[in-house]
Design goal:
The complex is a heterodimer of chains A (about 675) and B (about 325).
Chain A lengths: L2 H23 L14 H13 L10 H29 L13 H31 L8 H27 L10 H9 L5 H25 L7 H10 L32 H9 L5 H4 L2 H4 L6 H14 L1 H9 L2 H10 L10 H5 L6 H5 L7 H15 L4 H13 L30 E4 L2 H5 L1 H16 L4 E2 L10 H5 L3 H17 L4 E4 L2 H10 L8 E4 H10 L14 E3 L3 H7 L3 H9 L34 H13 L3 E5 L2 H13 L6 E5 H20 L1
Parallel strand pairs in A: 1-2, 1-3, 3-4, 5-6, 6-7
Chain B lengths: L2 E5 L2 E2 L2 E2 L1 H17 L2 E8 L3 H8 L4 E6 L8 H15 L3 E5 L2 H14 L2 E6 L1 E3 L6 E6 L4 E5 L6 E5 L18 E3 L31 E5 L8 H9 L3 E4 L1 H5 L20 E5 L5 H4 L7 E6 L6 H4 L2 E4 L2 H18 L1
Parallel strand pairs in B: 1-4, 1-6, 4-5, 5-12, 6-11, 7-11, 13-14, 13-15, 15-16, 16-17
Antiparallel strand pairs in B: 2-3, 8-9, 9-10
Helix pairs in contact in B: 3-4, 5-9
Classes of the chains: A mainly alpha (about 675), B alpha/beta (about 325).
Chain lengths: ~675, ~325
């Protein structure tokens, strides 16, 4: 080959690549600082699991395209070595990577593997092309860029095969060989050619291959295929658990406090990288409760908008990164507001923070916190928010509950039940944190009372805070009012501290999430469990024996997002239901990949004006699973409200009932007692 | 002797009713402080309102100029300050209406006056009159005293009975005041006035609200008839609005309007907490529902388990009969 031509080709290809790479990365230096290099072992294990092992691409729902990606991804890994080898061959025909000389066993094995993946990648790329050009699934962004890149991949594989095939022909190896499945097939295909023609074709394929590699490389930083270079770093730099389940506390006391995200410079550098890592596959939107019901929210579109905006603002951001002092503030203030055309208010107000997009994203892009940060700016700085948001904030401020019901009525639900109070001074094991819904909502009061019956039946030592309980502030935080949230969080930590609370029982997954994942940042560390988890434990310990909760009625279980997805509690409620004799007919969307009821992220407190209603869509799904009649079991006051409304709105009140797991378990206690009494009677 | 300056509100030469309530408050204040009431009417073509007020036996300053055609805090505040200077008033009283709440702070700032807003009642005599007003979203009542030389207050119109002109009372004088406000110097300008046209009172201010829910099955006729009989507004639960039975601006609840009427009739509304949050401030809640288990009965002062299509017309007939008998 030709060292000079190879060197020139490399220089011509790598120089613009390096230039463009730098142009894309330099603006990130102006973005908000964030520590993402801690706990390297956890990060490496994430890189192995989600990066190299492609965990999310094996999700059953998107299995076929997932497997196609795995083929192409595997091929890229194997062929990276081959590409280096080919450039080496350009300099010297005897070139081989150390340990991979073609004559060595490892080298021969590599060549076999290489040929297999070349064929696999060719199949994968052709499969993708078929999806793009023929079947066109809705979640894809159909673009010239995508087709071009697939064209590159096909060209790379074909030139690779042609180069190998020609080499085999020239060496007189015409027939099929298992040692070179790709090369021998290519040789067979080219066997009609003269030696000279084959040689010419081989040389052409070689140079074309190198040129395509460099062209491909140069295309990557320009568009969404920057994914190819940024995805693995993005996975390594991911938000470690609890991730989006615990939002970033703002330091509100600082002189130069920044309240959320106004301009692109308020995004963290990782959020910038997220936008680069997104290749717009659209898995984030397939079960997004906002997107599927016609709201203007799609995480991939947000990524696309941020990516385009980063490029538009390249110069100001580079200047900002270099500036200091007052010049910095000035440059920062000159950047346009994201809410002003990049990410619309209707977009960031539509999110229920259910976390589907994050659980679906193969490269672990953090979609939820950045939307909350935009709400924070809207609420804390611009004071531009839906009117109803102002109402719930005021209610929380004055009465410590979202409805603004007198805080002195917080214990009315348990009048006559003689429920012990933490303030009584009697020791207790569990603090039963009733929650606002459990205390004030007539529907949910029944669940609170069912939980008390269960605790008494199992002889669990517990107490409630009574009037001293206040909202955890989950909705305030997710609606962007960080100030109010922190006030509530500090009050809770102080109250818990006063009574030496260590173990907390909740009935609301939103309380659970905040108490479990968000209070540690405020110095509150407790064991927090949901009542379904406690029931499961009590049954396993033999402290609770249950009869039949529902009889012959069909039942399904709706996973609350903040239980199953955000806190990994999916099995305990099912075991609790099983113990109560309930056989759950699973919904198509359940467990970690459940579908939101529409009330999370503070959306419970806002009017749903855009698109169709999320809760109806979910109730339709449940009704189908139940064959039209039965019980939807749930474990969250918001879900119960939404599902109950959905049942009524779709005229199914007679056929479908929505019950909390605790209510079913409490009924099962009664039927057991009845059952044991009958024989003696 | 301290003068109490009542700042009147008028539209097209007609006095606003809230001003008559404020007049009652101003008179009480004058009685307690041993002073007299002078009123200020500002506007353009406002002579009628000035005469109307003077008929109550009050001396009126009339600031009438084209620049005051449309209410703007910026143009009215200097007029108030001028009237205080002209009368040597120690107190400025406005009704706590949208305009009054807007005007008072600006006028008070110009006068260096201490302010108490939303005053519900007065107590004590002499210059140290105590003013009772709500704080913390109405959860506590505070009694405050203003210590500045000029004192500015807004009074809640519903807490003071509107003044009635006694027959044979000698009308007060109407004195024109020159207006020195230059239109060109104003930094705010009037853009437009949007008036909601409805034969019924506004839901948020209505003294009576009759609301319907899913139980109406889309038929709001009985609800509307009772509301009209009582001169009230019509409300709806979210379920009824969602079903398209009632317009959006009828929605009462956490995510709709929050109302606090004297009487709230909930017909065919189950009373989910999201609805209750919007009407729990009502003085008297009457619930009519077929389901005896409906949570609305937990918050209702009077509950009737029954069919609203039967109950509402009967109720309406009884109310009409009682009224005709009077």
């Amino acid at each position: 080959m030709s060292p000079l031509a190879t060197a020139l080709l490399l220089a011509a290809g790598l120089a613009p690549f390096a230039w463009n790479l730098a142009r894309r990365l330099r603006p990130l230096r102006a973005l908000r600082a964030e520590q993402r290099l801690d706990r390297p072992l956890a990060r490496l294990s994430g890189l192995l699991r989600f990066g190299l092992a492609q965990r999310r691409l094996f999700d059953r729902e998107e299995l076929v395209p997932g497997l196609l990606h795995v083929l192409v991804f595997g091929a890229f890994l194997v062929l990276a070595l081959r590409t280096v080898t080919l450039f080496g061959l350009g300099f010297s025909e005897a070139f081989a990577l150390p340990g991979l000389a073609p004559s060595s066993p490892a080298g021969r094995a590599y060549l076999v593997a290489k040929d297999v993946v070349v064929l696999a990648a060719l199949a994968g790329a052709l499969g993708f092309l078929w999806r793009r050009l023929v079947t066109k699934p809705a979640r894809l962004t159909l673009s010239v860029e995508g087709t071009l890149v697939l064209g590159f991949i096909v060209a790379l594989m074909l030139t690779e095969l042609a180069f190998d095939g020609a080499a085999r022909l020239r060496a007189g190896e015409v027939g099929w060989s298992a040692a070179a499945p790709g090369g021998s097939l290519a040789a067979l295909a080219m066997s009609g050619l003269s030696l000279a023609a084959a040689g010419l074709l081989g040389a052409a394929a070689f140079w074309l291959h190198l040129a395509v590699v460099l062209a491909f490389l140069n295309v990557l930083p320009l568009g969404k295929h920057f994914h190819v270079l940024t995805a693995l770093p993005n996975v390594y730099l991911r938000a470690l658990p609890p991730g989006a389940s615990a939002l970033r506390p703002l330091d509100l006391e600082r002189e130069d406090a920044v309240f959320g995200t106004r301009s692109v410079a308020d995004l963290s550098w990782k959020e910038g990288l997220d936008a680069y890592a997104c290749t717009e596959c659209g898995r984030c939107q397939t079960h997004c409760p906002a997107h599927t019901t016609g709201k203007p929210l799609s995480a991939k579109e947000v990524n696309r908008a941020v990516r385009a905006h980063l490029r538009e603002q390249e110069r100001p951001l580079v200047a900002l990164a270099a500036a200091g002092g007052p010049a910095r503030a000035e440059l920062q203030a000159a950047l346009p507001a994201l809410a002003d055309g990049v990410v619309q208010p209707d977009t960031f107000w539509s999110c229920t923070t259910c976390g589907w997009c994050e659980t679906a994203c193969p490269v672990l892009i953090e979609n939820v916190p950045r939307l909350v940060d935009l709400r924070r700016q809207a609420v804390l700085v611009d004071a531009v928010m839906p009117d109803e948001a102002g109402r719930i904030f005021r209610n929380l401020e004055t009465q410590g509950n979202p409805w603004g019901i007198g805080s002195n009525k917080r214990t009315e639900w348990c009048e006559g039940l003689d429920v012990p109070r933490a303030a009584s001074g009697e020791p207790f094991e569990w603090l039963f944190f009733v929650g606002c819904a459990g205390a004030f909502d007539e529907r949910q009061k029944k669940v609170s009372r069912a939980i008390v019956r269960i605790l008494r039946e199992a002889g669990v030592s517990f107490a409630i805070l009574g009037d001293e309980e206040t909202c955890t502030g989950d909705a305030a935080r997710r609606l962007g009012n960080e100030y109010l949230f922190q006030q509530q969080a500090r009050a809770s930590v102080e109250t818990f501290g006063r009574y030496g609370v260590r173990k907390i029982l909740v009935q609301c997954p939103h309380c659970l999430n905040t108490l479990r994942n968000e209070l540690p940042a405020f110095g509150g560390r407790y064991e927090v469990v949901h009542h379904a988890e406690l029931v499961d434990r009590l049954v396993a310990e033999g402290r609770l024996t249950l009869g039949d909760g529902l009889g012959q009625v069909r039942a399904t279980y709706h996973d609350p997002c903040y239980l199953a997805r955000h806190n990994g509690v999916a099995e305990a409620p099912r075991r609790a239901l099983a113990a109560a004799g309930v056989q759950v007919t699973e919904l198509p969307r359940s467990g970690r990949t459940g579908f939101c009821c529409g009330a999370g992220g503070g959306r419970m407190w806002l009017e749903e004006k855009l698109g169709t209603r999320v809760n109806r869509s979910r109730v339709d799904e449940a009704a189908a699973a139940l064959g039209g009649a039965g019980v939807i079991a749930a474990a969250c006051p918001f879900c119960i409200t939404m599902l109950k409304d959905g049942v009524a709105e779709t005229g199914r009140e007679e056929a479908i009932h929505v019950l909390d797991v605790a209510e079913i378990v409490a009924t099962a206690m009664r039927t057991r007692t009845a059952g044991t009494q009958t024989p003696g009677a | 002797m301290s003068t109490v300056l009542l700042v009147a509100e008028q539209a097209q030469g007609a006095l606003r009713r809230s001003t008559l309530s404020a007049l009652t408050a101003a008179r009480e204040l004058a009685r307690r402080t041993g002073g007299a009431v002078t009123a200020l009417v500002a506007g353009h073509g406002a002579r009628g309102a000035a005469d109307e007020l003077a008929a109550h036996g009050v001396d009126v300053l009339l600031a009438d100029a084209p620049v005051l055609e449309r209410y703007l805090a910026e143009s009215y505040a200097p007029v108030v300050a001028d009237a205080v200077a002209a009368t040597g008033a120690a107190w400025v009283v406005v009704a706590a209406t949208a305009c009054g709440k807007d005007l008072l702070p600006r006028a008070a700032a110009a006068l260096g006056a201490g302010v108490a807003t939303d005053v519900l009642s007065l107590a004590g005599d002499g210059p140290e009159v105590l003013l009772r007003r709500p704080m913390w979203a109405g959860n506590v009542l505070a009694e405050v005293e203003i210590t500045s030389a000029v004192k500015a207050i807004s009074v809640r119109p519903t807490e003071f009975a509107p003044a009635v002109a006694a027959a044979g009372v000698a009308p007060g004088t109407v004195t024109a005041r020159p207006v020195a406000v230059a239109a060109a110097a104003l930094r705010t300008r009037f853009v437009e006035l949007q008036v909601a046209k409805s034969d019924r009172p506004d839901l948020a201010d209505a003294r009576v609200v009759v609301a319907g829910g899913r139980g109406t099955k889309g038929d709001f006729k009985a609800i509307e008839a009772l509301a009209d009989e009582l001169g009230g507004a019509v409300g709806a639960s979210r379920a009824a609005v969602d079903a398209g039975w009632a317009p959006n601006d009828w929605q009462v609840g956490q995510t709709g309007k929050v109302v606090a009427p004297d009487l709230y009739v909930a017909a065919g509304i189950s009373g989910a907490i999201q609805h209750v949050a919007g009407m729990k401030g009502a003085k008297v809640i009457v619930a009519i529902n077929k389901d005896p288990e409906a949570p609305i009965f937990q918050v209702a002062d009077y509950g009737l388990v029954g069919d609203l299509f039967q109950a509402l017309p009967e109720l309406q007939a009884r109310i009409r009969a009682a009224r005709e008998a009077r």
